[in-house]
């Protein structure tokens, strides 16, 4: 279909040019033989036709370039003055339709931005309303902890533990709400992958010691373009999931640099996932049978959204354990690249 379209774009232009050239060639030979005045007129007509043909081609090229400029402005959501091709031709009609489409899209985008801002304010208000009583609870629990007997001390410690779980769940839900409402302003810079892993490892040391798990880093001295805080959270959620899969093991973290992207492979050596679980791993509130009962099943959903917001991809498969593959484009790469397994 694509080849037929490309052929049709040039078929008529080449055919008309070919006819003019053939007539010019025949008339030139005949003039050389007969010296006829009619052939001189025919030669002049053909030369004029060829010149007009090239002028028409250039004119159509300029019109199409203007149409491309219009569509690019729509894609980039630019608000500067929109160029319109005047006239009654089909191209002029298409130009006017693109102008109307741009106006409608600008209105829709403006309305969406207002709704996004309202949603951001709403989420911030909810966050404030939830965090204030939780902070008060933590303070009062600390006071109770200092003024209780041994038996009461254990009860208060259990209350503190449950309160921290509630706090973590609320934070995760708010993060997911922010990500899905696209209200986050990412601050992307170039960082060494080693920096991210070191920062994540500091947070995960207690969990790693509990499960006797270590990280094995390979080729992680490469630069990735990301928001440090959010990408750290995305990779940390994956590593938490891997750490809980198998005690007394190691997790491989490998970076494979390519021309337009970096591929980060995280490979645990645990049980892997059930085949029926794999398509749902990154869904909200989905829990597979190997996950602990402490979370609420949104960590990997948050990871998926963060990586997508960085124009990357993440997928998982089994190979002597679970393997997570993250693909992140380089800073210069604007398009979203989807890399399949080879």
Structural account:
The chain is built from 7 helices and 7 strands, in the order ααααβαββαββαββ. It folds into 3 domains: 2-76; 108-180; 193-329, Heat Shock Protein 90, CATH 3.30.565. The chain is of the alpha+beta class and 342 residues long. The strands form 2 sheets. It has a 5-stranded mixed beta sheet with strand order 2-4-5-7-6, with helices on one face. The two termini are 27 Å apart.
Structure classification: alpha+beta
In CATH terms, the superfamily of the largest domain is: Histidine kinase-like ATPase, C-terminal domain
Q: Residue-averaged pLDDT, rounded? A: 77
CATH class label of the largest domain: Alpha Beta
**Beta-strand residue percentage:** 5-15%
- Number of strand elements: 7
The CATH topology assignment of the largest domain is: Heat Shock Protein 90
- One letter per element, helices H and strands E, the order comes to HHHHEHEEHEEHEE
User: How much helix, percentage-wise, in residues?
Assistant: 55-70%
What is the topological layout?
Blueprint: H1 2-34, H2 37-76, H3 90-146, H4 150-180, E1 188-192, H5 193-211, E2 213-218, E3 223-227, H6 228-243, E4 249-257, E5 261-267, H7 299-309, E6 313-318, E7 322-329
Parallel strand pairs: 2-4
Antiparallel strand pairs: 1-3, 4-5, 5-7, 6-7
Features:
single chain, 342 residues, alpha+beta, Heat Shock Protein 90, 3 domains, five-stranded mixed beta sheet, two-stranded antiparallel sheet, 7 helices, disordered N terminus
């Amino acid at each position: 279909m694509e080849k037929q379209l490309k052929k049709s774009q040039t078929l008529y232009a080449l055919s008309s040019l070919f006819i003019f050239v053939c007539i010019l060639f025949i008339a030139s030979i005949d003039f050389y033989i007969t010296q006829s005045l009619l052939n001189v007129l025919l030669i002049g007509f053909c030369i004029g036709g060829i010149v007009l043909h090239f002028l028409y081609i250039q004119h159509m090229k300029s019109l199409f370039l203007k149409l491309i400029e219009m569509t690019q402005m729509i894609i980039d959501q630019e608000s500067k003055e929109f160029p319109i091709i005047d006239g009654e031709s089909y191209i002029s009609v298409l130009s006017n339709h693109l102008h109307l489409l741009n106006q409608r899209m600008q209105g829709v985008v403006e309305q969406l931005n207002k709704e996004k801002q309202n949603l951001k304010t709403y989420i911030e208000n909810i966050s404030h309303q939830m965090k204030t009583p939780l902070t008060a609870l933590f303070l009062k629990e600390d006071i109770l902890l200092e003024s209780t007997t041994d038996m009461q001390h254990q009860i208060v410690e259990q209350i503190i533990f449950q309160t921290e779980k509630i706090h973590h769940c609320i934070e995760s839900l708010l993060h997911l709400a922010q990500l899905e409402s696209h209200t986050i302003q990412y601050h992307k810079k170039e960082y060494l992958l080693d920096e991210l892993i070191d920062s994540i490892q500091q947070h995960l040391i207690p969990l790693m010691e509990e499960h006797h798990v270590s990280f094995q880093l390979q080729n992680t001295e490469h630069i990735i373009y990301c928001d440090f805080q959010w990408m750290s959270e995305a990779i940390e959620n994956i590593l938490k999931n891997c750490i809980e899969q198998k005690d007394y093991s190691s997790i491989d973290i490998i970076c494979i640099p390519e021309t337009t992207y970096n591929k980060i492979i995280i490979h645990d050596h645990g049980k892997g996932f059930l085949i029926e679980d794999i398509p749902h791993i990154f869904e909200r509130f989905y829990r597979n049978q190997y996950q602990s009962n402490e979370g609420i099943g949104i960590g990997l959903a948050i990871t998926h959204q963060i990586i997508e917001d960085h124009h990357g991809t993440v997928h998982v498969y089994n190979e002597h354990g679970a393997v997570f593959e993250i693909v992140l484009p380089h800073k210069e790469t604007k398009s979203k690249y989807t890399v399949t397994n080879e």
